[in-house]
Amino acid sequence: MNSIALSEIRKSFPALQRTHNDHPVAYFDGPGGTQVPHAVVTAMTDYLFQHNANTHWSYPSSEETDAIVSAARQALADFLNATPNEIVFGANMTTLTFHLARALGRNYGPGDEIVLTELDHHANIAPWRALEKERGVTIRMARMIPETGLLDWADFEEQLSERTRLIAIGAASNALGTITDIGRAAKMAHAAGAQIFVDAVHYAPHQLVDVRAWDCDFLSCSAYKFYGPHIGVLYGRHELLNAIDFPKLIPASNAAPELAETGTQNHEGMAGAAAAVDFLASLGSGETRRSWLQAAFAELHQRSVILVRQLWDGLSASDGVQLYGPAPAAPRTPTVAFTLRGVPSREVAVRLAKEGIFVSHGDFYATTVVERLGQTADGIVRAGCACYTTSEEVERLVEGVRRISSYSTLRYDGNQSQTKELERTNMKATWHGTTIAESDDTVVVEGNHYFPADSIRREYFRESEEHTHCPWKGEASYYDIAIDGAVNEGAAWYYPEPKEGAANIKGRVAFWKGVEVR
Domains in the chain: how many in total? Predict the structure, then answer.
């Protein structure tokens, strides 16, 4: 193993020089798209500046384009352990999956069944669900286990029958980091007489795909998740690709893989995708590109195991943090999902971003996962490690969450009694009033509290069947109030009619969870 030092890897990524609010940026948004090394950009600009042409014509730049396309197919074939005539390029994984689904669906009809899982990204759900309307197929959904973030294999097996035509399954959850045993799923699919399609978008950046070992029929991934440009890749067994009736133009090739590609392709994207594979291979050593990739991924996996353990342990020790998905000891990617009690996920991301820590929030198009976790209102926070992530960056993230947490778990302490004028500002909201009780982690105030109309605090007030006393925007708050020395969990504040441009709160209330007190 070449075992290139992390400092050398980081030199390859110009984006790592960025600062925000005088903080060096720590990118934990890799699950949504990684940063790009010099080599990828160089390959793309070299193609556009030196070789830009359409394919299959008899002049140098066209012939050079043909060679670049062929080299890209070979690079991605090495990346997936396939052959070049099994590699299809397209705009992105979603587009390719819709394309494949419609083509396969031409041979599906009423009575045929497709098995999906709750763990999957919507790009591996919507294309197949479309066949319900278009072809009358039946969709069966295998459950996830919310407590562990794992696939419920018993339920998965129950969804299979002699009517199953296809299993569409993710190799790794982009929301939780769960790794699913694709070899096991493929055996079950083939035993039922079905084909298997694998979404490897989130898996491919972290563990080396092997379509032969998995025995899968189709697989998709996206180069921008493994340090490349925005281009999608579809693998299909050569004999299967050739047999599929893909929608195509009559003059276009009738042979795989070109028969599955529509129109002029993104040649510079292909060049960049190949360069991304070569970049990853350069981190290893061996006699072939595949062996270099195997060595590189083995080393990167060991590094990621350490980082995800540090991140998981640090967050789990932070007050108010709820972690989701499998524990570090389970097969998983270095992607961690969490929420912070009393603080909307968007605000966690906003607050961390001010410190130069970039995390994402929401459902990440894994809508069913977030629904099963009961987090549809605010979504979850997602932090993912990449080949350039450092232990110091992980510590910055953990400390940033702890700072937010320290301001989001305030409790009323009836033993403290003092009077103090209060005027504190946070996130565009200003409070004016008299403090009637305060301790290290508690502030209780009475007086008037004004929220500007454009305040981010608006996110905290949500409609509720139980609490509908708030006339401000017709919404209510679930957060705690303290009256006469007692904390009433889940009680709602009562609001008078709001002033123009502000909400005016009167009475004795505790600071609510999620507000920074300074």
Answer: 2
